[in-house]
From TrEMBL:
Its EC number is 4.1.2.25. Pfam families: FolB (PF02152). The keyword Acetylation does not apply. It comes from the Bacteria. CDD domains: DHNA_DHNTPE (cd00534). Keywords: Folate biosynthesis, Hydrolase, Lyase. InterPro entries: Dihydroneopterin_aldolase (IPR006156), FolB_dom (IPR006157), GTP-CH-I_C/QueF (IPR043133). One of its GO terms (cellular component) is cytoplasm. GO terms for biological process: folic acid biosynthetic process; tetrahydrofolate biosynthetic process. This is 7,8-dihydroneopterin aldolase. Signal peptide: none annotated.
Length: 121
């Protein structure tokens, strides 16, 4: 299956369990891997035969910045479900959310949640 990849779309949002996260907010990075057949788009050079990466990124950005989630798992699930509902050409979508400022008392670069959802599954 062909892929459209959107790498590390930066968003500033207020997701997390702690009250401080709701107030202060933090940066998140969204990576999307859309799976779909791109043959017709390649042959026709027509945007109607694919999924606009600008529209897909915009949808993910809107969800991440206009809503608040306690879990980044819920954010990822919402992005995947809404993208599959919005873009009929998508066969599957992998959503990766990096939370570099995760408030854990350990030295780490960040935490990541990654899910894959497939149409009809």
């Amino acid at each position: 299956m062909d892929r459209i990849l959107i790498h590390r779309l930066a968003v500033f949002a207020h997701h997390g369990l702690l009250p401080e996260e709701a107030v202060l907010g933090q940066r998140f990075y969204l990576t999307l891997e859309a799976r779909l057949d791109l043959r017709e788009a390649g042959r026709s050079d027509d945007i109607a035969a694919t999924v606009s990466y600008a529209d897909l990124a915009g949808l993910a950005h809107r969800i991440a910045t206009e809503r608040r989630f306690r879990l980044i798992e819920a954010l990822a699930e919402t992005i995947a479900q809404e993208a599959l509902a919005t873009f009929p050409a998508l066969q599957a979508l992998t959503v990766r959310i990096d939370k570099p400022g995760a408030p854990v008392p350990l030295v780490l670069d960040g935490l990541t949640v990654e899910i894959t959802r497939t149409r009809g599954a």
